[in-house]
């Protein structure tokens, strides 16, 4: 079953509105009508609405970097899923390791977010990944499986089909130290087997699993050559138009 490759840009806490619009305009010019590849960008929420305007009519999807799993209420500083829909987001990154580590987000909290995103018609890009000590202790598979089982618990098969998973080993994020294609492929295959166990073979065959962690124009092709790597979640290299464009246009 063919899975359309997806390249997603996580801009993290970078770019003013004007800078974000400039970057979006450059991406739109180069990638706005690309066939056979899906592109998603996740600017900071202050720039979402202007970037949405800039992307009007292009095939680039707009995503948020986080959300709160309630419809509305006294949650100072938080953003509801329907608000993200209302500015034009179709995707939301959930469970990023920076959210897990810096903001102490638990597996259960992330599971609530995944369910809420699906209920609001947002496509979750669910991030999982082990830290360096966990990899060194040979518990990477255990950690990633635990994160996934928790986040996917109780989902129906049709909900599972709508999820995108991003495997991001924490030791490779922003460090310049990419997982080798072999290491990444091994974990991606493990994740796909888990999806078979939890849901079914056809679902496991359809869900896209992106790799994230120091993806650059120089390493994207080797990563994408692996059977179970269906795209990339790109941080640092998504902040420069020419780098991101090269990654999307990998051959
Ligand atoms: P990086 O970040 O590409 O800068 O390593 C990836 C991510 O955190 O999604």
How are the SSEs placed, and which strands pair?
Blueprint lengths: L5 E5 L6 H15 L6 E5 L5 H8 L5 E4 L16 H6 L4 E4 L2 H6 L4 H13 L3 E6 L3 H5 L3 H13 L4 H5 L2 E4 L13 H18 L2 H6 L1 E5 L7 H5 L6 E4 L6 H8 L3
Parallel strand pairs: 1-2, 1-8, 2-3, 3-4, 4-5, 5-6, 6-7, 7-8
Helix pairs in contact: 1-2, 1-12, 5-7, 7-9
Bound molecules: 2-phosphoglycolic acid.
Write up what this structure looks like.
- By secondary structure, this protein is of the alpha/beta class.
- The chain has a single domain (6-248), classed as Aldolase class I (TIM Barrel, Alpha-Beta Barrel).
- Helices cover 43% and strands 15% of the residues.
- The protein is built from 12 helices and 8 strands.
- It has an 8-stranded parallel barrel, surrounded by 5 helices.
- Strand 1, helix 1 (17-31) and strand 2 form a beta-alpha-beta unit.
- Helix 1 (17-31) packs parallel to helix 2 (48-55), helix 1 (17-31) runs parallel beside helix 12 and helix 7 (140-152) packs across helix 9.
- The mean pLDDT is 96.
- Bound molecules: 2-phosphoglycolic acid.
């Amino acid at each position: 079953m063919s899975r359309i490759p997806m390249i997603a840009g996580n801009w993290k806490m970078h770019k003013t509105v004007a800078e974000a619009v400039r970057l979006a305009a450059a991406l739109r010019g180069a990638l706005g009508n690309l066939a056979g590849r899906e592109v998603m960008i996740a600017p900071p929420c202050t720039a979402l609405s202007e970037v949405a305007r800039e992307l009007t009519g292009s095939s680039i999807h707009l995503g948020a970097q986080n959300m709160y799993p309630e419809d509305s209420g006294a949650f100072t500083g938080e953003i509801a899923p329907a608000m993200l829909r209302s500015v034009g987001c179709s995707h939301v990154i959930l469970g990023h390791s920076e959210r897990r580590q810096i903001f102490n987000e638990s597996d259960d909290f992330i599971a609530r977010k995944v369910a809420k995103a699906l209920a609001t018609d947002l496509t979750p890009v669910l991030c999982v990944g082990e830290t360096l000590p966990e990899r060194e202790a040979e518990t990477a598979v255990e950690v990633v499986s635990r994160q996934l089982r928790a986040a996917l618990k109780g989902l129906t098969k049709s909900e599972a089909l709508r999820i995108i998973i991003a495997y991001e080993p924490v030791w490779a994020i922003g460090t310049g130290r990419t997982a080798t294609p072999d290491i990444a492929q091994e974990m991606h295959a493990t994740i796909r087997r888990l999806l078979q166990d939890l849901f079914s073979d056809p679902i496991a065959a359809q869900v896209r699993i992106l790799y994230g962690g120091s993806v650059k124009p120089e390493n994207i092709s080797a990563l994408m050559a692996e059977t179970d790597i269906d795209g990339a979640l790109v941080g640092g290299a998504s902040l420069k138009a020419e780098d991101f464009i090269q990654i999307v246009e990998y051959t």
